[in-house]
Amino acid sequence: MKFSDNEQMIGILSGAGAYFLWGILPLYWKLVGQVPSEEVLAHRIIWSFAFMIIILIVLRKLTTFKIELLGIFRQPKKLAAIAFASVFITINWYAFIWAVNHDHVIQTSLGYYINPLISVLLGILFLRERLSFWQLISFALATIGVLNLVFRFGEIPWVSLILAMSFGLYGLLKKKARLGALTGLTIETLFITPFALIYLMTVRTSMADAMYLEDATLFGLLLGAGIVTAVPLLLFASGANRISLSMIGFLQYIAPTLMLIQGVFLYGESFTSVHLVSFALIWAALVIFTLARTKLFRRIEPRSFQRKHSLES
């Protein structure tokens, strides 16, 4: 096997490993289900920051972190982007933890299936990106899938939409800020760690109480929240540098698929024929969306869109 083939295989395994770990995160949050979601979130922020500092020290990237941090404070726009990114990732983490511990795992799955489409929509609105014909079709199918849930059940899947929008906005702001994956997460958690500590000290009588030190198992699980946050990110960073965006696009559906399987078969959440229709529409949308830029799909799209492609190129 050639060196490049080895690199690609490492990239695929790393990327798949990252999405696999993200996909089974509901199992982990269920283990700390007796702790209020707000406190789990605070621990996740604090221990993620602590673990990322350790990682930067081990990888000898602490100097890079300091340089990027100082650079951010010299650029008000970049500082604002990373500050808002910290807010949106906090919202995303909280919504996910809350949803898992309130038996809405299927909604988390739906949220992460919708997320790629939301990210492209934000690209159109804020980065002036253009959609191809087949991408428009994929958006229409996904919209019909969501509306099917709304009209058949009479309620909006808020958890799914909050997860998709918050992560989409987070990605948009990260693109604006242009930070490395490792230093980016460290800086984001640095910004919100003081608020997490203040919150824990407000709701608990002492630091020992806030850290759940009287229960060694629970303390270990809460501390591990930092590890389960950082490890997939490290794997993703390793994979993203070795494989194409199209491959990442395929791999990213591992996570919501695993969440859906857990919600239905492990936690017994309701999955009716209405859910099946909506998910089928969204799955079809994602297949079309993933293949939209291929030569085959470009050849069979309307001529007016083909002319647009030729003008753009």
Proportion in helices: over 70%
Order of helices and strands: HHHHHHHHHHHHHHHH
User: Structural class, please?
Assistant: mainly alpha
Work out the helix count.
16
Unreliably modeled segments: none
Question: Largest sheet, described in full?
Answer: none
Hey, roughly how much beta strand do the residues contain?
A: under 5%
Polypeptide structure, described:
With 313 residues, this protein is an all-alpha fold. The chain has one domain (3-312). Helix content is 82%, strand content 0%. It contains 16 helices and no strands. The chain has helices spanning 3-23, 25-31, 37-58, 62-73, 76-101, 105-127, 133-153, 158-177, 181-203, 207-210, 216-240, 245-251, 254-266, 273-291, 295-299, 303-312. The radius of gyration is 21 Å and the shape is globular.
Offer a concise description of the structure.
Helices cover 82% and strands 0% of the residues. It has helices spanning 3-23, 25-31, 37-58, 62-73, 76-101, 105-127, 133-153, 158-177, 181-203, 207-210, 216-240, 245-251, 254-266, 273-291, 295-299, 303-312.
Jot down its keywords:
single chain; 313 residues; 16 helices; globular
Topology:
Layout: H1 3-23, H2 25-31, H3 37-58, H4 62-73, H5 76-101, H6 105-127, H7 133-153, H8 158-177, H9 181-203, H10 207-210, H11 216-240, H12 245-251, H13 254-266, H14 273-291, H15 295-299, H16 303-312
Helix pairs in contact: 1-11, 1-13, 3-5, 3-9, 3-11, 5-8, 5-9, 6-8, 6-13, 6-14, 7-14
